[in-house]
Amino acid sequence: MPNFICTTCGTQFAESASPPDGCAICLDERQYVGWSGQQWTTLHELRRGHVNRIDHEGPGLTGIGTEPKFAIGQRALHVAAERPLLWDCVTLVDDAGIEAVRALGGVEAIAISHPHYYSSLVEWSRALGGVPVWLHADDRRWIMRPDPCIELWDGETKPLGAGLTLLRLGGHFAGGTVLHWEGGAGGRGALLSGDIVQVVQDRRWVSFMYSYPNLVPLDAGTVRRMMDALAPFRFDDVYGAWWRTNVRGDGEAAVRRSAERYLRAIGAA
């Protein structure tokens, strides 16, 4: 039986003879059902018209993104740490993507920022040798394809070794996670933020939202708590969820001043 994939968010579901009645992730108020209604595809169909682009994104970071754009359109990042990691996921799993990751030294694990990027996490794990996939336990209800490869973690931080630490910031989702790489940016530190901390079009700034497509902001208390969680960690670069949406240099200050601007904008400064 196939594993159907929602074409709006790119999430792969457990095996079923027919498509699910709906995508719970898209029916949630943070996302949306496509304007043409709920539609489904499979990896087999996706491979017919899409390929994965592999491109340098920063020091020690290689991006993997699907072309033409599919679903949300995020790109994953291979982190060339001493214990290499795949950060976030894309739905398409193809030979080019897998061979590229292997050529970069493979990975010891996968970690994903939030449910909108769970995509084909099980397929990626299996293709890369059955590596564990780290998801925060607060978001367990959004796992649409359960599998033994999934490792749930609790609490506020999860050290992965080699200077890699998962941080639960919450915000966009209860378990919203970012990755701090101590050795990133040439040793000055890098924050891989997905869209938990969203790098915006003016790449000197970031922002914070409960729902991006529906433009629902976060409350002041949540943004302050996110900043408190980041405070102990040093980083010079911030890598967002899409190609070239990165703050290169002065990242800590950019996040701090962005939070201050956000709080002023909602009248909470």
CATH architecture assignment name: 4-Layer Sandwich
Give the radius of gyration.
18 Å
Major sheet attributes = 7 strands, mixed
Distance N to C terminus: 54 Å
Query: What is the count of distinct domains?
Result: 1
Number of helices: 7
Strand segment tally? 19
* Assembly annotation: single chain
Strand order of the largest sheet: 3-4-5-6-7-8-9
What is this entry, summarized?
This protein has about 270 residues and is α+β, with helices and mostly antiparallel strands. The protein has seven helices and 19 strands.
In words, what does this structure look like?
This protein is α+β, with helices and mostly antiparallel strands. The model has no long low-confidence stretch (mean pLDDT 97). Helix 6 packs antiparallel against helix 7 (251-265). It is built from seven helices and 19 strands. It has one domain: Metallo-beta-lactamase, Chain A (4-Layer Sandwich). Helix content is 21%, strand content 26%.
